[in-house]
Amino acid sequence: MYDMAIHLRTDGTKRLYEQIYEHIRQEIREGKLLAGERLPSTRSLAEYLQVSRSTVDTAYEQLLSEGYIEASPYRGYFVCKMEELFRLEGLDAGSGAATASQAPPAEGAASGGVLARGRGQGVGRARYDFSPYEIDMSAFPFPVWMRITKNVLSESGSGLFSQGEPQGEWDLRVTISRYLHSSRGVECVPDQVVVGAGNDYLLLLLEKLLGRDVSIAMENPTYKKAYRIFRSFAYRIVAVDMDEDGMSAARLEQENVTAAYVMPSHQFPTGTVMPIGRRTQLLRWAQMADDRYLIEDDYDSEFRYRGKPIPSLQASDRDGKVIYIGTFSKAIAPAIRVSYMVLPPVLLERYRRECSIYSSTVSRIDQRILNEFIREGHFERHLNKMRKIYRAKHELLLDRLRPWRDRFQVLGENAGLHLLLSCQDGRTEEELVRKARQAGVRVYGMSDSYIQEPEKGQKNATILLGYGGLDEKQILEGTALLEKAWK
């Protein structure tokens, strides 16, 4: 252990915790900090650097989240094993991005202003619905959206009503590629971006790009709608169990599959954040064959409440092995129906040969409105406002669940719009859901997300509690009813 000579800039260009995080991260990636090496305590490093302890705490928590370091109770922080990372980065890597063109080419409403179906389908009614699929629309800047819509329609002329580019409007693809690079570390150019009306359409395109005789691995449990879409392709689907770090790389290597569908930044429904070590193992697996790909679904990475967002898996890809899929449904509104896919160079060429005959499924008007909304800074302001709103709900729900910790373990609390309650007293999921329903509260069981049910006795009953679609008063009243129902 030693104090770190970190040169901190005070010119305001980058926050102090980010500079500390990036310095330690780089030291680990370059092998200057070795596996098992102990880091300075947060107190000693804060004193040495003359910064607040909370600044160092935030930097360490980000490194913990990404799997660069681990905490040992009463002993301190230690560097994680990074051998796979060094081997991966030492390969003769190909370019992860295509060459940019020099010229641009010629989910129902609920009460309280909440829009549903962010990740799935809501069914039935309850007085309080802790759905993990809903988002809060109460703070959406409707006047701004209407003003931009009016301006777009009045200023664009008849050309806006002609057929657009199959991949989506060039200006929007430029905006998306810049946003992804700055917020998610995604390495791409506008040519690699394909805009589509929801993830469903983008997955349909993937069938054309990957082919029909495809075997695909999926996390178990997983996002069931994606599973049903892949099954409709007649794909052979292999359920790969998860451990505390995400999809088991050892199990994946045993399966004869050519693609793996993963959600590394915030796995649905478990909330697992995949550490860097597991990510490099998956990338290593994909590099072992030309036709192997990782499909990264980055559906709600914007909502992380401590530290900054975890970089995407695609950001660590150097061989064009990651197909990156994202959406504006969670961050703005499901009804906008704008998602995007970043294709690796090989698949981009295949798209141009075989899929450019398909017209874009998002209207040029909607694309232009969204582009102006982002370009003028309204999206960033809206996102910051929603982070504060969701953070307040997140903290309130956690506070309400603290007295329950003798009966339930709280999981998945780092990000997203839902928490998990793992029952520790032997009650079944069916019993918990039934008693909640009798009390007028709807909750969601983990079992609905399993492709392949674990063996009996291998898991505790687990309940998903979403808070995006409830206001703070509803969270208080709903959890009070749950407490009575589950006593």
How many strands, what sense, and barrel or not for the largest sheet?
A: 8 strands, mixed
Assign the CATH superfamily of the largest domain.
Type I PLP-dependent aspartate aminotransferase-like (Major domain)
Spatial sequence of strands, sheet with the most strands? 7-14-13-12-11-8-9-10
Please tell me the CATH architecture of the largest domain by its name: 3-Layer(aba) Sandwich
CATH uppermost class of the largest domain: Alpha Beta
Count the DSSP helices. 15
- Structural class of the secondary structure composition? alpha/beta
Tell me how many strands there are. Answer: 19
Q: What Rg is obtained from the alpha carbons, in whole angstroms?
A: 23 Å
* CATH level 3 topology of the largest domain: Aspartate Aminotransferase, domain 2
Compute the separation of the termini in Å.
48 Å
Helix content: 25-40%
Backbone shape: globular
Portion of residues in beta strands equals 15-25%
Question: Residue-averaged pLDDT, rounded?
Answer: 86
Count of individual domains: 3
Low-confidence stretches: 91-124
How would you summarize this macromolecular structure in one to three sentences?
The chain has 15 helices and 19 strands. The protein has helices spanning 16-29, 42-49, 53-65, 83-89, 142-155, 170-184, 199-210, 224-232, 249-254, 276-287, 345-354, 364-375, 378-401, 429-438, 472-486; strands at residues 69-72, 76-79, 109-110, 114-115, 128-129, 135-136, 193-196, 215-220, 236-243, 246-247, 259-262, 293-297, 322-327, 339-342, 408-411, 418-423, 441-442, 444-445, 462-466.
